[in-house]
Amino acid sequence: MTLQNIQDDLSAADTLEPRAKLFRGLGDPSRLAILDALLSDERSVQEIVTQTGLGQPNVSNHLRCLLDCGLVSRRNEGRFVRYRLADRRIADLIRDADQLLASTAVGVDACRSYTD
Questions:
Q1: Ordered strands of the 72-77 beta sheet
Q2: Which of 49, 72, 79, 105 could form a Cys-Cys staple with 66, CB 3.0–4.6 A?
Q3: Backbone dihedral angles phi then psi of residue 114, each to the nearest 5 degrees
Q4: What is the enclosing helix (H) or strand (E) of 43?
Q5: What CATH number does residue 54 fall under?
Q6: DSSP 59-114
Q7: How distant, in Å, are the alpha carbons of 81, 88, 90, 100 from that of 104?
Q8: Positive or negative CA dihedral for 116, 69, 96, 81?
Q9: Total Cβ atoms within 10 A of residue 91
Q10: pLDDT, one tens digit for every residue, the chain (116 residues)
Q11: Within a domain: residue 74?
């Protein structure tokens, strides 16, 4: 094994835990609903509540998590706070997941390994 192979293996291992954290963060239906609500435009908490049907405390808690993890950002607008995706690649990731599901949905739906 060469030094380059060892460095590549270490680099790959270093990305596994953050990648797993990212997917755990995306693995909650409420957080995904909030991200879906933010795909097209920024929104206030009340707008997210209306669009998702989630309760206001639930939305606020999940937004705090999404903010802490860097997946959403916020902007003050007068008395209100507007939330948006922190990076447009998050929207791309969600759209890519939807396209992948379109071709693998039966297998994913049948999978019992990842049920709650």
A1: 43-44, 80-85, 72-77
A2: 72
A3: -110, 20
A4: strand 43-44
A5: 1.10.10.10
A6: HHHHHHHHHHTTSEEEEEETTEEEEEESSHHHHHHHHHHHHHHHHHHHHHHH--TT
A7: 38, 24, 21, 6
A8: positive
A9: 15
A10: 565 555 555 566 788 888 888 888 899 999 999 999 999 999 999 999 999 999 999 999 999 999 999 999 999 999 999 999 999 999 999 999 999 888 886 666 667 666 65
A11: yes
Parent domain of 83: 3-87
The pTM of this model reads 0.80
Looking at the 3D structure of the chain, how many domains does it have? 1
Contact 34, 66 (CB under 8 A): yes
Residue 116 falls inside a structural domain? no
| Per-residue DSSP letter, 39 | S
